[in-house]
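Researcher: I'd like a structural prediction for the single chain below. Treat it as a standalone chain; there are no partners to consider.
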Amino acid sequence: MLELKNIKKTYITGDEKVEALKGINLKFRESEFVSILGQSGCGKTTLLNIIGGLDRYTSGDLIINGKSTKKFKDRDWDAYRNYKIGFVFQSYNLITHQTVLSNVELALTIGGISKKERKKRAIKALEEVGLKDQINKKPNQLSGGQMQRVAIARALVNDPDIILADEPTRCVRHKNKHTSNGNT
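Model: Treating it as a single chain, here is the predicted structure.
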């Protein structure tokens, strides 16, 4: 289904070269649940962004369903992201002036799905994550956990082959200081 062959990612800033990924080799099976662990700054998010088609690798190859992505054009990456991938971002990336329903519907707009069908699917996804009664609220009217569930509903609404969740679990220390547990 998905394979990474010697994936390398180098960022160049001024005179400095930063090797974010140094030859990653992974093969994922269908219906497999994988957790990538590591300390902050080790390249977990970079890896997810490459798998999700949000960032390009410097060298190596990402194989999707037996097909190399080396010669993918922008339209190929767009189709991959729109129909095969569901993202749950660290910061949820919800649009604050939109309702919860509109935030979930947004994932369906690019696919040419009718407004009626978008609404139906978005409501179903929100119902599945326990937020059907929150559809008309704005993100700032929700708790952190509810915002995360909106992001999950948005990731699931297209019925993607792959769900990528960056920092899906978080822990809270006393005095409400928020820290990451290093999981992606």
